[in-house]
Amino acid sequence: MNRNELNPDASPEAAYGARLRSVREARGWTQEELGSHAEYSSVHISFVENGRKPPTLRFSRSLDRAFGLDGTADSFEHAFREMTHGSLLEGFPEYKKFEGRASEIRLYEVGVVPGLLQTPEYAAALVESEVRRGAITRDQADERLALVAERQAALNRPRPPLVFVVLDESCVVRPMGEHGVMDRQLMRLIEFAELPDAVVQVAPFAMGDRRPFNLPITVLTLPDRSLMSYAESAQRGHLERDSTCVVPILRAYHQLQAESLSQADSVAMLNQLRKGTP
Predict the structure, then answer these.
(1) Average pLDDT, stretch 46-72?
(2) Fewer beta carbons within 10 angstroms: which end of the chain, N or C?
(3) Strands 162-168 and 198-203: what pairing?
(4) Domain for residue 54, yes or no?
């Protein structure tokens, strides 16, 4: 078989394939031998190496098991995640790094429960809807579910952040998923509200024009007390680090909290909604 020359600068997929070939050959393995270790065909290995087939999260994890790279900075899973940041909104990967070390997180969400509080079933229902509409691929759906789990795990660090959550009423009355999904999600919100480092409030529809935000917004306080905000449009996410821009957003968030239902009343509302969910 002729050996194709690989150009790792051609694309992220080409760089992934070139590295795969390099690691494989350093082990002295043929494509058939690697396929045997990773439980993929040699044809599949060849296609990925030559950039003719994009890698997937499952494939990357299989490579890591075969090469003994699980959990390392050089893992193929890490390379895959870096490569597939393109399937996420511009600006989100950078935001996620700050979210993972913030001392305080303030969230306002409209329409859906925010990722940090989603149950696995609720998150799966969301991405399945996008797959059915053709908005994302199955591999991108798997990546998004892994990302939700990864972000939630960051909340369990030794010194967890204070998390303030204001949910537009649309988040909790909009049905999502099959039987039982919404009930378990509402229960998750109630349990989250009981945590010592969390506050959960509902912004009812009755607030009307007193609502200071029409779109979701996040404000982070970092350990050095610096502030940043994050907001998304349909095309991109925007991370704002200029305090002169963030402070007015924080002030508006405090107004939102004051106008929203108290945590006790919000939990009572969630319990009432649970009685009406299938």
Answers:
(1) 90
(2) N
(3) parallel
(4) yes
